[in-house]
Amino acid sequence: MPRGDGMGPPRNASQRGGRMRGANPGAGPGGDCVCPGCGARAPHAVGVPCNSISCPKCGGAMTRQ
After folding, report:
1. Cβ atoms of 44 and 64 closer than 8 Å
2. How many CB atoms are closer than 10 A to CB 16?
3. What are 61's strand-pairing partners?
4. Are 1 and 8 in contact, with CB atoms under 8 Å apart?
5. Nearest to residue 64, comparing CAs of 30, 37, 23, 22?
6. Which H helix or E strand runs over 64?
7. What is the pLDDT of residues 29-61, one digit of tens each?
8. Would you list the DSSP string of 15-62?
9. pLDDT over threshold 80, residue 26
10. φ and ψ of 34, to 5 deg
11. Would the CA dihedral through 37, 57, 50, 31 be positive or negative?
12. For range 15-19, the mean pLDDT
């Protein structure tokens, strides 16, 4: 221990710093895109953000669920 405080180096990904902090993965490939306005659902396509898809019913922006 460099300072004798018992901390030492990080042991796993959740103890490390960084942008995603290691233990917070993305939403993954599954799930649906949902319209917050009318509640319409569409399957999520891998690599396409839900907020770039317009709702098939009302034309609003979709969100991920």
Report:
1. yes
2. 13
3. 54
4. yes
5. 30
6. strand 63-64
7. 778 999 999 999 999 998 899 999 999 999 999
8. GS-SSSTTT-----S--EEE-TTT--EEEPPTTS-GGGSBPTTT-PBP
9. no
10. -125, 140
11. positive
12. 58
Q: Are 38 and 60 in contact (CB under 8 A)?
A: yes
- Angle CA(57)–CA(59)–CA(60) in degrees, nearest 5? 115
Give the list of residues 6+ apart from residue 41 with CB closer than 8 angstroms, or none: 32, 33, 34, 35
| Predicted pLDDT at 39 | 94
Residue written as token pair 């770039």? 52
Check residues 25 and 46 and name the one with the higher pLDDT: 46
State if pTM tops 0.70: no
